[in-house]
UniProtKB/TrEMBL annotation:
A Pfam family per the record: Nckap1
GO cellular component, one term: SCAR complex
Basic and acidic residues compositional bias, start-end: 645-659
Organism: Cyclopterus lumpus
A GO BP entry: neuron projection morphogenesis
InterPro entries to which the protein is assigned, alphabetical: Nck-associated_protein-1 (IPR019137)
Name of the protein this chain belongs to: NCK associated protein 1 like
Positions of the UniProt region annotated as Disordered: 636-659
Source species, domain of life: Eukaryota
Amino acid sequence: VSGTMDYQQKLAEKLTILNDRGNGVLIRMNYIKKICADPKMRPSILTEKALEPAIKYINKKFPNIDFRGNIQNLTSIQRQKAEVLAAATSYYDSFLDVIEFRDHVYELLNTIDACQCFFDIAINFDFTKNYLDLITTYTSVIITLSRIDDKKALVGMFNCAHEMTTGSSDPSYPRLGQMFVEYEHPWKKLTEEFGPHTRSVTAALLSLTMVYPRRNLPAEQWRSAQLLSLLSAPAAMLDPACCDTMACEYLSIEVMERWIIMGFLLCHSSLNTNQASQELWKMALRSGLYLVLIRDEVLNIHKVSEDLFDSIKGYNKRVADIKECREHVLLNSGAMHRERRQFLRGAMMELFKVLEDEPGLLGPKALFVFMALSFSRDEVLWLVRHSENMPKIKTSEDYIDNQMAELLFHMEKLRGLMTKYNHVVQRYHVQYLAQFDALVLNDTIQNMYVCPEEESVLMTSLVSTLSALSVKQVENKEEFDFRALRLDWLRLQAYTSVNKAPLPIKEYPDLAKVMNLIQFHTRMVDSVEELLQDTSEVSILGFYPRVFERMFCQSSEEMTMKRYLMAFPLVCSHFSQCGHPLCPEEKRSLRLCVTFLEQIAKQTSSVVLDICAEQCNLNDQLQPKHCAEAISAARHRKQKKSVPKKGEVQKEKPGAESLRKDRAVVTNMDKMHLMLTELCSSYSVCSDFVVFNHIVVPTEFLLSHLETRLSEIIVRMANYNQTTEEIARPSDLLAGLRAYTASLYTLSSYINMDITRLVKNVLLQQTQPLDSRGGQTITTIYTNWFLESLLRQASNSFIVHCPTMNCFVNHATDNEPSFRAEEFSDISELRALAALIGPYGLKFLSENLMWHITSQVSELKKLVIENMDVLVQMRNNFDKPEEMAHLKKRLSGGENVLKRMTIIGVILSFRLMAQECLKDVMSNHCPNLIGPIDCLIDFLSPETDIKVTLSVFEVASAAGFKCDIDPALVAAIGNMQTDNMSVDEEYKLSCLLLVYVGVSLPTLALDPNSLYSRERGGAYKFIHFQLPQTAFITYQPLIEYKKLVSSTLLQLGQNVEKMETKNRESIYLLLHMESPFLSQDMLERCFPYVLLRNAYREVYRSFIVTLG
């Protein structure tokens, strides 16, 4: 074959293109196999019941199907031919891609045989590698195609629909059908095809004899040789790491085994004739049980080999070799790979620590990094494919690695180190290429005896390209691209590897060594990322989710592995690198990444919150409520020293847990802090990473978990039980919450995360009725408790408001109270409540209180409407006692009115207390906000527009200020809907309600609970009785009310002998009410103040005042 013909063949270009195309076709075939096997993703035309007869008929008759005959089985396709054609087209085209690929591979392999190409992995590495890759890729495509069960149905249905639509069969159908039939037993057909290529394939494989055995060594030999150690020879630490076979040093052992196993299966004749072939083949057979075809498709190498050789005469010895190798694998392989992983964990850690400390060594020692990554990747992939298809053996623990996290972690750290210090690597190798490689290459060219024109042009171009490099290009951050140079070297390998080449590469090994070295150095300058992907990409883990998740679970159970757990989600960033443009439909999911991050966050949040709970318990021991017992015991000891009883355990004082006689004693808190340190270390690996174009921030998962858990804990700390009316005191909850918050802030010393944002989000959600997940908050819980427990009992007089103590207290009854009201309603508790739920929470509480008030007002309106005629007459005749006495007999529901007014008073009393406490909290928390609001209120006057006044009062009320007009009450009453009632009528009803209340007051004198209590600052019965006076903007109705009440009460004084006078003085005190709309002069005109003074003197007379 002439030299001119060699150049025209473009072997290098064809190998490069066909390998890429073959990978795409292989991935496509695997995708079709997967979706056809998955019931959820299966094509609709294969699942329709109407098409089942047609599919059965096609599978039976394939490929000779009579589409034109009037066959009843195909009528369903006739009816849906458009749908079938559309659904099957993409699959049909994919199968045509296989034929096209096969044709090109045949042509190229025949050309290479015709050229009698020379292959040696140590000399023409790229040419040999591409050749062997093409063979294994083609074989994998055919094997995967043969595993697609529905291929005949898909192709047959397409051609049937095509013929029914166009009237003719598809031109490619006969060849496609023939290919499917031929490859029903793929290995038999493939061995026939590759018979003519045995010489070339065997020669390429035998060149691995110098590489594969050296790579396939046990861990003991690695350890004795101090493999990957930079510290073993300190004097040579700065020497560049280089050898004659640079690319072979990080060539994947899995790739070599695939070449050897598949190559000798296809070209098996050399196994019986060549001892070297046989030894190499047996060594590969002893390495494991499975080889990866693509993704999670594997080849059971011993079974396939045995089945093939069983069918060939004269291969009995080879079958025996296969069985012996399989037994060897089952006995030794698992343990050997386990030891390798153990060695690599230590070696990778040492390498990373040294390079992290001295990143300048990444220049001369870059080869060590890629060797370490490649070795580790091989071990990870071996374990993955064997764990999924684990053999039934006694030593199954060899196939389980609970320390996989550490190996993956160091792989990720080394990758990150190379990426981070890429400029260091670039700078070193640019100088190496320009000042050493270019000179050596030039000298090598000069020493050649023969150098044809084409080769001379290529090599001269290489020298000039390298000589032009300078460090300034790195400093100026110029982009380098040596892909053309490397393609030229591949072309040169092809030109010089053919038979009778003018410049045979095998006669110039020095040229090959120099160029292989230059190729590695150029990759260090422009394609470090690509080389990192080639040597450390473990995207196959995405196709083994069960194994991957099992590895994570096993690692997460080990305390020492927790710091490495972040390697698992980081590995998910590799998944996007395994796709191909020929198969864009492959599923892309963040599920695994999210699952791992959720699990890590769950573990971390659990430890953090356990520590917080422990700190909360310790903090609770220091609360004042716990000191009473200690004070009592101390006082008792002073009075009388008693000997402690036998077996009586002395109660430990707070702080006793910090006393330690021996530091070796590990407490539960120590264990939790250690676990937290380990888990938080994993978050320091990286702040974010990219998976399928999504930026993933691990700390956000932790914040989300903490937010959810903390919200649940806060609600749980409230300890609300609706049945028993139990709930935690607001002050206790606030103290616990502060202890949790203080402990949470210590987390920021472990991880760089915004704890303030977390706390704000959680606490802000607790001020709303529902949190972000729709769960109950403490705002809802405390609102329900105060309304359903405290205020309901207050409405029934079991609990009363005590103005003297400014809280609610239990009223003495026969029944034991379920709680002490003063423990939940005094100033300190309501301030704690205001601090917990804030203005938003108190607004929600206020809205619920107003709803209860409006419901009472609605009932009062009904009572007024029922007695309207009588009340109108009473309003006009309040100064006529005889007439009033007659009208009062006609009035019904007086006690009901007073009871409902009492309920309103209870609610308003509680709301006023809550508002005052909110103001105190707000004044301490944000005085700069409270000051301007106070000034704004001072600017209001009676002449100010009422809308402006209400707007200002709304702001002030939200901040806790007491307003002359309660905007919430005004809004609530204003929103009450009354059918067809004008404003005047509403005003009339309000005035009549006051009349109703006024004439009903004297009946309180008969109630024994109306007696005034000096301790509480009021009477049990009417201590809550209030008038919603802020509902009236003018004072005229209040004047009428005062006059009416004074008239009815003064009549009590005339009934000296009647029972109605029993609590007369206590009832008089009801008129001593403060109102922004009434002055003392107006009150004096209605009811003389001297009567009030005498009433006070009378009610206080029964109390004995003691001094001292």
